């Protein structure tokens, strides 16, 4: 009986340590995924979900804004494999499920962890999006399409460009498009911060995260998800 009580006491202490350890589980890093949704113009459109988790229990889901390293969108908790996100003033929680590989399952798409790396694989990084609006009464619909791109040579040089198009359908058919080269120069990457220095001397700073060892390579630049195409193998 004495041995049984000793064993039971040790078991309770061990379980208490497990529970205490689970309560301290935290996340640290950027998770990103593409949610596909129906478009107002027909077909499908994309919604990029990018979240920066911190060990202190806070997160930021808008890496487009300056000061993204300190910006707080809300807090998260972890119970078992469920990650719950809450924003101030909203009682509803957004939940994700942690996979065995360290990524998150959102049901219809996955959030993949993007490590903070100090290198950028060479290649063309492209981001494409489409959106639209329409009125059943007027029979007119407007669609917009955009493409942004960077080329990094893997040796500290880059070039940038963008392309936009607008299509109007219905009684008034029209639209237009434009192509813009933003020039190029040199780049540096450190702890998730990409610094671009253009040939004219101006500089830009962007948040940048990617997974170099995966195919296809995806990168998160200012909260948008880019995919690498036409990569030059060394």
Largest sheet: 8 strands, antiparallel, barrel
Kindly name the structural category. Answer: mainly beta
Number of contiguous helices: 1
Helix and strand sequence: HEEEEEEEEEEEEEEEE
| Proportion of beta-strand residues | over 45%
* General form: globular
Distance between the termini: 70 Å
Q: What is the rounded Rg?
A: 23 Å
Could you tell me the number of beta strands? 16
| Mean pLDDT over the residues | 79
* Amount of helix: under 10%
Q: What's the arrangement of strands in the largest beta sheet?
A: 1-2-3-4-5-6-7-8
Would you identify the regions where 5 or more consecutive residues have pLDDT less than 50?
4-23
Question: Can you describe what's shown?
Answer:
With 234 residues, the protein is mainly beta. The chain has one helix at residues 2-23, and strands spanning 29-38, 44-53, 58-60, 74-79, 82-86, 94-98, 104-105, 110-114, 123-135, 140-152, 157-169, 174-190, 193-198, 203-210, 218-221, 224-229. It is globular and about 50 Å long.
Supply database-style keywords:
234 residues; 8-stranded antiparallel beta barrel
Q: Topology of this protein?
A:
Blueprint: H1 2-23, E1 29-38, E2 44-53, E3 58-60, E4 74-79, E5 82-86, E6 94-98, E7 104-105, E8 110-114, E9 123-135, E10 140-152, E11 157-169, E12 174-190, E13 193-198, E14 203-210, E15 218-221, E16 224-229
Antiparallel strand pairs: 1-2, 1-8, 2-3, 3-4, 4-5, 5-6, 6-7, 7-8, 9-10, 9-16, 10-11, 11-12, 12-13, 13-14, 14-15, 15-16
């Amino acid at each position: 009986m004495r041995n049984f009580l000793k064993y039971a006491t040790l078991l309770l202490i061990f379980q208490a340590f497990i529970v205490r350890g689970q309560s301290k589980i935290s996340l640290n890093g950027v998770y990103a995924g593409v949610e596909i949704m129906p478009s107002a113009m027909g077909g499908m459109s994309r919604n990029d979900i990018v979240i920066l988790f911190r060990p202190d229990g806070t997160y930021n889901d808008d890496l487009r804004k300056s000061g993204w390293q300190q910006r707080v969108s809300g807090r998260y908790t972890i119970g078992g494999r469920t990650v719950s996100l809450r924003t101030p003033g909203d009682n509803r929680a957004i939940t994700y499920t942690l996979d065995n590989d360290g990524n998150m399952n959102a049901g219809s798409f996955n959030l993949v962890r993007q490590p903070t790396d100090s290198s950028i694989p060479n290649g063309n990084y492209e981001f494409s999006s489409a959106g639209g609006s329409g009125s059943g009464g007027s029979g007119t619909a407007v669609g917009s399409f955009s493409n942004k791109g960077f080329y990094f040579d893997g040796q500290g040089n880059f070039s940038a460009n963008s392309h936009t198009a607008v299509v109007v359908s219905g009684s008034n058919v029209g639209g237009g498009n434009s192509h813009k080269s933003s020039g190029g120069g040199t780049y540096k990457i450190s702890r998730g911060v990409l610094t671009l220095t253009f040939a004219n001397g101006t500089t830009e700073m962007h948040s940048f995260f990617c997974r170099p060892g995966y195919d296809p390579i995806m990168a998160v630049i200012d909260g948008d998800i880019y995919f690498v195409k036409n990569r030059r193998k060394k």
